[in-house]
Design a protein that fits this description.
Radius of gyration: 19 Å
CATH superfamily of one domain: Aldolase class I
Bound molecules: flavin mononucleotide
CATH topology of one domain: TIM Barrel
CATH class of one domain: Alpha Beta
Largest sheet: 4 strands, parallel
Structural class: alpha/beta
Distance between the termini: 43 Å
Length: about 180
């Protein structure tokens, strides 16, 4: 309701720009970016380094080789490249490539506790979500976001109970039954 009854949203940091928003956003992407840049970031950053937007075994391999500590399997919420792979479906391939020792975060399309439980089963260590919390934010500001988190937590609990998983450590690949041909 707040979203419908107040002024339209503005990006304060972009409001002084001389050009329109799509042109400005496109100008932010650097087509020369490569894994050599990742190696450079690694050389100047001692903290944890995660690469976001990995959807293939090949990119996972190159990211780790360039010094990444972990990966975010993500298609950025499906907002960038139409027809990009579904991140959940890319997860098994990426996990198989990097093995159990590398942290993997999954995002894009997490809308329920069942999505979170399924992602943990399929190889994610944890998940992120963007649009789900924004729905709560638009509906009820801070209390709306709290409510989204509360609902997700309840759904996780209900799903784990129904699956017979007592702790997060019990949520693993053995709980997944894949359809033939989609292994
Ligand atoms: C309003 C908005 C702005 C975003 N901006 C960026 C960004 O600048 N860089 C980026 O890597 N991802 C960006 N994302 C994508 C999120 O980091 C995240 O990958 C995505 O929201 C996850 O998918 P979900 O929204 O389906 O949960 C943005 C998402 C939203 C909703």
């Amino acid at each position: 309701m707040i979203f419908l009854t107040t002024d339209s949203l503005k990006f304060a940091s972009l409001s002084n720009s001389a050009t329109d928003l799509p042109t400005l956003i496109n100008s932010m992407f650097d087509p020369t970016l490569s894994f050599a840049d990742l190696e450079w970031i690694r050389s100047i950053w001692d903290g944890k380094l995660f690469v976001k937007g990995v959807l293939t075994a090949q990119d996972a391999r190159k990211s780790i080789a360039a010094g990444a500590d972990g990966l975010v399997v993500s298609n950025h919420g499906g907002r960038q490249l139409d027809r990009a792979p579904v991140s959940f479906e890319a997860l098994a391939e990426v996990r198989a490539e990097v093995g159990a020792g590398t942290e993997i975060i999954l995002d894009s399309g997490i809308m329920s506790g069942a999505d979170i439980v399924a992602s943990l089963c399929a190889g994610a260590d944890f998940v992120l979500f963007g649009q789900a919390y924004l729905y709560g934010l638009m509906a009820g500001v801070e209390a709306g976001v709290d409510r989204v988190i509360e609902l997700l937590a309840k759904e996780i609990e209900a799903n784990m109970q129904l699956m017979g998983a007592a702790t997060i450590a019990d949520v693993g690949p053995e709980l997944i039954r894949r359809r033939p041909g989609r292994e």
